[in-house]
TrEMBL record:
Annotated source species: Duganella guangzhouensis
Protein name: DUF3325 family protein
Source taxonomy: Bacteria, Pseudomonadati, Pseudomonadota, Betaproteobacteria, Burkholderiales
Membrane-spanning parts: 55-78
Keywords on record: Membrane, Transmembrane, Transmembrane helix
Length: 90
């Protein structure tokens, strides 16, 4: 169950990342920024609620938060790897 909760929280993080104007993983997602930001909220709330129901209060919050933060850390690296030859500002 913790993989499901962490995965749903990861989907929420993916929605937030795709709504960011700096991402280049899926440029078509920029047209649906408001929807993606809205979708992230019920996903993360559902992940936390399911984890809290299964594991208890703080443990459930930590499971969902770990999935959320892991995806938020990995996605910029994946985006940079996707743009291998592109020049970066700075």
């Amino acid at each position: 169950m913790n993989w499901i909760c962490a995965g749903v929280a990861g989907l929420a993080a993916l929605c937030l990342y795709l709504a960011s104007p700096h991402q280049t993983l899926w440029p078509a997602a920029l047209r649906r920024q408001a929807f993606l930001r809205w979708l992230a909220v019920p996903l993360v709330v559902g992940a936390v609620a399911a984890a809290v129901d299964t594991y208890g209060g703080w443990c459930g919050v930590c499971v969902a938060l770990a999935g959320f933060m892991t995806v938020l850390v990995v996605l910029p690296y994946l985006d940079a790897w996707h743009r291998k030859g592109a020049r970066h500002v700075g």
